[in-house]
TrEMBL record:
The active site is at residue 111. Keywords: Hydrolase, Nucleotide-binding. A motif (Histidine triad motif) lies at residues 107-111. SUPFAM superfamilies: HIT-like. Residues 14-126 form the HIT domain. This is Bifunctional adenosine 5'-phosphosulfate phosphorylase/adenylylsulfatase HINT4. GO terms for molecular function: adenylylsulfatase activity; nucleotide binding.
Length: 214
């Protein structure tokens, strides 16, 4: 887990002070990993922030590691529990983070919103903005942080191991496994039907794993 200065806490971080209960902010939830409180300038019917106790500046400091995936999942679980408790009548919830340079505080915080937005114009602050960053939904961030071991376990059984090329004779199950880089190689060494090419799929994020499909 990436932290400022190897785990050091910045002296001027307001959210660190809230996490240490050094302010008058009312905590809606507190455990050894995260705390939650109401946004001081709510943009929706219910608007809570869930933050890690440990100082992490932004989503850019998170890595594809089990501990970061687990932390964001816990932030999300706490946020969902609070909104379902306090705004059960809401039919639409939003959960996500502002990405630099549009984040307001350099301490990771999950926005938990029970809609509608109040006033409605504040919804513009919670749109994705492509290369400019903007708002990223928590589910999308979790996909980016999902550990590679978890990703590999979801692949189809025909993906056996790294550095293995498997020839399939009319295997239709391989055509929609993952977005892939497709190249063509000779079929001479794999099939008796030399007149037809075979597609070799190099599957990201495993560049050494290839599947040959008819």
């Amino acid at each position: 887990m990436a932290t400022l200065g190897g785990g050091a806490t910045p002296s001027a971080c307001l959210f660190c002070e809230i996490a240490r209960s050094s302010t008058s902010a009312t905590l809606l939830h507190s455990d050894d990993r995260v705390v939650a409180f109401q946004d001081i300038k709510p943009a929706a019917f219910r608007h809570y922030l869930v933050i890690p106790v440990e100082h992490i500046s932004t989503v850019n400091d998170l890595k594809r590691k089990p501990e970061d995936f687990s932390l964001v999942s816990h932030l999300y679980d706490v946020g969902k529990t609070l909104l379902r408790r306090d705004a059960p009548q809401s039919t639409h919830y939003r959960f996500g983070f502002h990405q630099p340079p549009l984040n307001s505080v350099n301490h990771l915080h999950l926005h938990c919103l029970a809609l509608p937005f109040t006033p409605r114009w504040k919804s513009i602050k919670y749109f994705p903005l492509g290369p400019l960053g903007g708002f990223i939904e928590v589910e999308k961030l979790l996909q980016k942080l999902k550990p590679l071991s978890a990703v590999s376990s979801t692949l189809r059984p025909c993906l056996l191991s790294l550095k293995t090329v498997i020839a399939f004779h009319g295997c239709s199950c391989c055509t929609d496994i993952l977005p892939s880089q497709v190249s063509t190689m000779s079929k001479a060494n794999h099939h008796s039907h030399k007149s037809q090419p075979v597609k070799t799929l190099t599957l990201s994020p495993y560049p050494d794993t290839m599947v040959a499909c008819c």
